Amino acid sequence: MSRNGPIALLYHALFVIFMIAPIVVVVWVAFTPEGFLSFPTTHWSLRWFYAIARYPEFIAAFWQSLGLGALSSAIAVAISVPAALAIARHRFVGREAFQALFMSPLMIPNVVLGIAFLRFFTQIGLGGTFIGLVLAHIVIVLPFALRLTLASAVGLDRALEHAAVSLGASEATVLKRITLPLVLPGLVSGWALAFINSFDEVTMTVFIAGPNTATLPVRMFLYIQDNIDPLVTSVSACVIAVTVLALVALDRAYGLERLLVGRGRDGR
Amino acid sequence: MKATPYLLSLPALILFAAIVIVPLGMTVALSFHDWGQYKGIEPVFILKNWREVFTDSYYGEMFWRTFRIALAVTVLTALFGAPEAYILNRMKSPWRGFFLLVILGPLLISVVARTLGWALLFGGQGGLVNKALMGAGLIDAPLPFMFTETGMIVALTHVMMPYMVLAVWAALQRLDPQIENAAVALGAGPVTVLRRIVLPQALPGILSGGIIVFTLAASAFATPAIIGGRRLKVASTLAYDEFLNTLNWPLGAVVAVLLLVALVAIVFGANRLIERRYAQVFG
C-alpha cells in the first residue's frame, strides 16, 4: 500500500483541526480568569471550576446522570443477555423481527421518542420521575448493549459448553461457570457503551426530565439557551474530561475500533 | 424446547411493547386530538392539526429547511469525510489507531459541549472562525454564523462527521490492497486507481453513511436549538416548542409523526435504491 503524500497529510491535519477545534475551545475558555467569555492568553485561572461548587443544581445533575446511566445500562445489559442468546443460538419464527424491534430505538429519532415518552409517562403518572427516566434510558441504550452482547454470544464456542455437560455439569453450572464468563467482556463493554450513551443523551431526556430529575446535559442545554458564560464552559470541560478518560479506558480494554466498527482487523 | 427463544426474549419484548410501541401509538392518537388555549387537550378524533400543518406554509417551509440542512450536511460529510477515511486507512499502525480515536472520539463527547464549542468559535467577542477566514483572505467581512442556517450546517457537519468516517472506514476495511497494487502494476495512474478501484468500493460505505447522517441531521435537536436560537426552527425544535412552551401537544405530535414517517420512508427508499443499483452491478 502506498504512503500518504504531502497534500494528503496537509488535508489530514486540517481535518483533525476541524474535528478538535470546538472541543479545545471549550476547555481553553474554561480556564479564563475573567468574568466574561474570553480566551486566556497570559493568565490562567481555575475560578470557574471552583464556581461550579456554588451551583448545586449542576452537582446534583451530575450525580443524577451518573446514577441514571449506571442503573439503566445495567438493566439494559441484563435484558439483552437472554435476548442475545436467543437470537444467536436459535432459529425461530420472528427472530429477524425481534432483532429489528430491539434495534429500532436507533432508527426512531430521539426527539420522537422523547415526545412519545412524555405523553405516555404523563398519562400513567410517571411524568418527570426518576423511574420514568430509567425506563426511557433502558430503551434507548438497549441497542448498544445488545449489539455487543450479541457479538460475544455469536462468537461463543459451544464445544466448551458441550464439554462441561459431558463432564457432568448441570445446566445452571454451565451457565454460571462457562457461558457467562465467556460473554463477560462483551457485557462489560456493552455496559460501558450504553453508559456513555445514556450519560450524553439530551434530546430525548429534555422532554421527560422534571425540575428535580434533570440530567447534566439537560441542565447544560437549558443553561446555554439562556446565556453562555464561562461557567458552562467549565462544566463542559469536566464532562469532556470524564468522557475522554472513559474513552481511553475503553480503548485500552476493548479497542475503540472494535467497539464502534464491529470486529477490528487486528482482532484484539 | 421450542419455547426457549421466546422465553429468553420475553423481558425485552415486554419492555418494548410497553415502553416503545404503546407510547408511539399514543402519540399518533394524540395528533388527532383537539386542543385549545383554555380547554387543554380534548380526546376527540379530528383532522384539524393535520390540516393546519399541511395548509399553513410556515410548516412547509420549516420541513423544507430541515431537510435542506440535512441534505447539505450529508453532502459535506461525504465530500470531506470519505477522503479522510481513505487517508486514515493508508496510515501505519500506531498513528492510525491514534487518529481514529481523535476523529471518532467526539462521537462520545456530549453534543451540548461540542455545540457550545461552535457557539464560542462563531460568536461572542472572539469570533475565531471569521478571524481565521479573513486572515486566510477567503472573506472580506465577517460572515454571520450564529442564528443562521450556515452556522447550523457547519456545526452539524462536525457533529455527524464521525458517522461518515466510520461508515467509509468500515467499507475500506474490506478493500484488498493488492487490487490497488495490481492496478498500479498494470500501468494505472493514481487518479485512475482512485476513480476505478477505490471509489467504487468505498461507495457502499458513503451511501450507508449518508443515510445515517441524513436521518440524524434531520432529527438533530440540541445543535439546531443552540445555534439557531429561538427564531430559526427545524422540525425537532418546533416540536419541542409546541410541547414545552406553547403546550399545543396535538400539533407537536403531528410534527413528530410526520418527521418519523418521512425519515422511515426516506431510509427504506434509499436502501431499496442502493440494493437495486448494486444488484445491477454485481448481480
Keywords:
heterodimer, A: mainly alpha, MetI-like fold, globular, disordered C terminus, B: mainly alpha, two-stranded antiparallel sheet, 12 helices
Present the secondary structure layout:
The complex is a heterodimer of chains A (268) and B (283).
Chain A: H1 6-30, H2 47-52, H3 56-89, H4 95-103, H5 110-123, H6 130-154, H7 158-166, H8 171-200, H9 205-208, H10 216-226, H11 230-253, H12 256-261
Chain B: H1 4-30, E1 34-36, E2 40-42, H2 48-55, H3 57-89, H4 93-104, H5 111-122, H6 128-135, H7 149-173, H8 177-185, H9 190-218, H10 222-228, H11 235-246, H12 249-282
Antiparallel strand pairs in B: 1-2
Give me a quick take on this structure:
The complex is a heterodimer of chains A (268) and B (283). In chain A, 74% of the residues lie in helices and 0% in strands. Chain A has 268 residues and is mainly α.
Q: What is the correct CATH architecture of chain B?
A: Orthogonal Bundle
Mean pLDDT of chain B: 90
Structural class of chain A: mainly alpha
The number of strands of chain A is 0
Computed over alpha carbons, the radius of gyration of chain A is 22 Å
CATH class of chain A: Mainly Alpha
Instruction: Specify the CATH homologous superfamily of chain B.
Output: MetI-like
The arrangement of helices and strands of chain A along the chain is HHHHHHHHHHHH
Give a written overview of the molecule.
The complex is a heterodimer of chains A (268) and B (283). Chain A is built from 12 helices and no strands. Chain A is mostly helical and 268 residues long. Chain A has a single domain (55-261), classed as MetI-like fold, CATH 1.10.3720.10. Chain A starts with 5 loop residues before the first helix and ends in a 7-residue tail after the last helix. The relative contact order of chain A is 0.13. Chain B has one domain: MetI-like (MetI-like fold). Chain B has helices spanning 4-30, 48-55, 57-89, 93-104, 111-122, 128-135, 149-173, 177-185, 190-218, 222-228, 235-246, 249-282, and strands spanning 34-36, 40-42. Chain B has a two-stranded antiparallel ribbon with strand order 1-2. In chain B, helix 7 (149-173) packs across helix 9 (190-218) and helix 11 runs antiparallel to helix 12. The mean pLDDT of chain B is 90. The chains are: A mainly alpha (268), B mainly alpha (283). Chains A and B meet through helix 1, helix 3, helix 4, helix 5 and helix 6 of A and helix 1, helix 3, helix 4, helix 5 and helix 7 of B.
